[in-house]
Amino acid sequence: MGLEIVGRGLPAGNNIGQRIEHLRKRKQLSKSELARSVDVARQTIIRLESQSTGRVDTLSRVFDVLGVKAKIEPKDKKKRFTENAANTSTSDEWYTPPHVLDVLYSVYSVFDLDPCSPTRDEGKAPVKAKKYFTQKNDGLSLPWCGVVFMNPPYSDVASWTKKAADSVERGDAKTVVGLVPARTDTKWWNNNCAGKADILFLHGRLKFGSQTNSAPFPSALIFWNADLVQIQETQKAIPSFHMPKMAISAE
User: Fold this and answer.
1) Residue 64 and residue 92: Cα distance in Å, rounded?
2) Which residue range or ranges hold the HTH cro/C1-type domain (predicted)?
């Protein structure tokens, strides 16, 4: 029919079943728990995830439980830049600009982990890292470690920035550097970035990958638990405004 299911917060995957499985694991729900919440048999969830088959009303209830607002639209519908920009796990059109990566390499050398890479092949991966998580792994469901760089799917940037903040808070990751839209009016920004990380607001608008036009939004590098010297070295090489992490206390 030439249709596909799209939605904010819906992770990348080869099919809808895999994407639902990723969401369920992120919520730390078993198949049985999801089945009970949706009021269907466990086998229904198994078929949905393994075969991508099921009733539309069941799928709708699954999305409600998993917190995703999804819709059906034509596959050839032109996507807005902001729906896919920098989604390195689904398209090679949104890779981090090379000049940004080059600066980060000069400061961090090779990253320990890229949790949203399009490939685990070191020779083809756009980011230099010792370890890669891909769509198949679902980096939101696995522990992070060492110094991490992420250019997350912007359709679900809230989940990725929360994962970054939580990972350094728990001590799983030493440092996380993220390239994200500078959307200071959003909940994810104020919950996961402001006051929890050092922020470099980048001057101008970035061009992602092979795009001929600049992004329609400003960008920022977010440093969770980073060394101040490393942040300063990055700032010297990239025109930016530094907003340092500040303790927030209730009066």
Assistant:
1) 31
2) 20-72
248 C-beta neighbours (distance < 10 Å), count: 8
CA 77 to each of CA 2, 80, 231, 247: distance values in angstroms, whole numbers, following the listed order: 10, 9, 40, 45
Sign of torsion, CA 99 102 108 112?
Answer: positive
Query: H-type helices in the chain, by residue range?
Result: 16-26, 31-38, 42-51, 56-66, 81-84, 98-108, 157-170, 187-192, 228-237
Banded pLDDT at 136 (limits 50, 70, 90): confident
Which residues are within 8 A (CB) of 43 and not within 5 positions of it... i.e. 6 or more apart? none
pLDDT at residue number 16: 82
pLDDT above 50 for 85: no
150 shares a domain with 64: no
214: tokens are 């600049």
Given CA atoms 18, 66, 11, 144 in this order, what sign does their dihedral have? Answer: negative
Picking from 203, 138, 192, 149, the residue whose alpha carbon sits closest to that of residue 173 is 149
For residues 55 and 170, membership in a common domain is answered with no
Domain count along the chain? 2
- The answer as to whether 19 is a domain residue is yes
| Closest residue by Cα to residue 117 from 168, 184, 108, 101 | 101
Mean pLDDT of 7-34: 79
pLDDT band at 59; cut points 50, 70, 90: confident
Cα–Cα distance for residue pair 34/66, rounded to 1 Å: 9
- Whether residue 166 lies inside any domain: the answer is yes
| Of 137 and 174, the one with more pLDDT | 174
